[in-house]
Amino acid sequence: MSKKEPVGIIGAGSFGTAMANLLALNTDVLVYSRNPELVEQLRKNRFRFGVPLHDRVTVLNDFEEIAGRCQLILPIVPSDSFRAMMKSVTPYLEPSHVLLHGTKGFDITGVDLNDVPKLGIDRKQVHTMTEVMLQESVVVRTGALTGPNLARELLDGQPSGSVIASKFDEVIRRSTEVLSSSQLHVFSTHDVLGAELAGVLKNVIALGSGILKGYGLGKNVQAMMITRGLHEMIHFGRALGSDNRAFFGTAGVGDLIATATSSKSRNYTFGFRLGTGETLEEVRSTSQELAEGVRTLMITRHLAKNLRLRVPITEMLYQIVFEGFPIEVAMNYLITYPYEVDVDFL
Ligand SMILES: NC(=O)C1=CN([C@@H]2O[C@H](COP(=O)(O)OP(=O)(O)OC[C@H]3O[C@@H](n4cnc5c(N)ncnc54)[C@H](OP(=O)(O)O)[C@@H]3O)[C@@H](O)[C@H]2O)C=CC1
Ligand SMILES: O=C(CO)COP(=O)(O)O
């Protein structure tokens, strides 16, 4: 693909905007927002999240035009809207399109999230975003964009690394060509499931790490949360059919460190507020920001029950977040948990 060919983005949220400005370093970018008022506002005042939109970024309310002009399109919307978004854009997609999503969450089918505690959930009901893209469109060449990519840092022009995960070398090549810059180092992998799962599951550990900090605890136990949390992520990954490797790279440890230690992470911040004693409802009702880890925690805890996985951190976080379980008691449980060996996943 020539660097002159425009790239499309679905979703003018914080990560969509950050990626738009990054892509604009190499090519023209067309961003789809479903909100005509936002499009109008951005046409007049080209500021979003406190930064100017790059001159090569155009925000449109017309996805048909974007699909007509762009072959490579990055859907970047929250996981709970992802399938609905795909259904709305699929009439305009053709087999020649390439979809590279940037979403870090699960899709669930056949059960409403609110009913999960009552009805439970099984593996067949849980889908990754690449699975949803394949299920809902005629597009074949798909992939995922993941890695330590806190939108706030990217918007502020700070450097980072991303991972393009795809079964297709062509997707990797085309995406790398438009994403690589002096601000972003791009890695690639064919392990799509591992890279996607790492990005999804680390949000739960970031939530837990924020809880510990909000509760007033220090780095020793935060390190324990991140280390043992990585074990649980790998344990989940294996149970869902992935191997270990992605978890040790930029998409795994890399993103886990960024998200579980930064006050710029929405998941970490959400957990921090819970740790200071606010309830789930209080945090939810006063925060506009998306914390995918809350939804992921609901899904993974019930999936773990269904799969009979031993994931004590996930279980304790679930009880703290959704059942008001005291943090101190949960800490005691985890500190005295009979882990047999330190490293058990090699
Ligand atoms: N922010 C970050 O640091 C990073 C985020 N991610 C992931 O990216 C995903 C999106 O996050 P983020 O950008 O921060 O979220 P935001 O809440 O900032 O933005 C989400 C955007 O998606 C749009 N949207 C929602 N539903 C639809 C739909 N059905 N059709 C079209 N557009 C829709 C929203 O539009 P509207 O305003 O009209 O509702 C909004 O513009 C998440 O899964 C997150 O985990 C990944 C890496 C970094
Ligand atoms: O995935 C992210 C960083 O890579 C974004 O983390 P938050 O959604 O917690 O802000």
From TrEMBL:
EC number(s) reported in the record: 1.1.1.94
SUPFAM superfamilies: 6-phosphogluconate dehydrogenase C-terminal domain-like (SSF48179), NAD(P)-binding Rossmann-fold domains (SSF51735)
Major localization listed first in the record, in broad terms: cytoplasm
Organism: Neolewinella aurantiaca
An example molecular function term from Gene Ontology annotations: NAD binding
Amino acids binding NAD(+): 11-16, 151, 266
Segments passing through the bilayer: none
Official protein name in the record: Glycerol-3-phosphate dehydrogenase [NAD(P)+]
InterPro entries, sorted: 6-PGluconate_DH-like_C_sf, 6PGD_dom2, G3P_DH_NAD-dep, G3P_DH_NAD-dep_C, G3P_DH_NAD-dep_N, NAD(P)-bd_dom_sf
Domain of life according to the entry: Bacteria
Residues engaged in binding substrate: 104, 266-267
Domain Glycerol-3-phosphate dehydrogenase NAD-dependent C-terminal as annotated: residue spans: 191-331
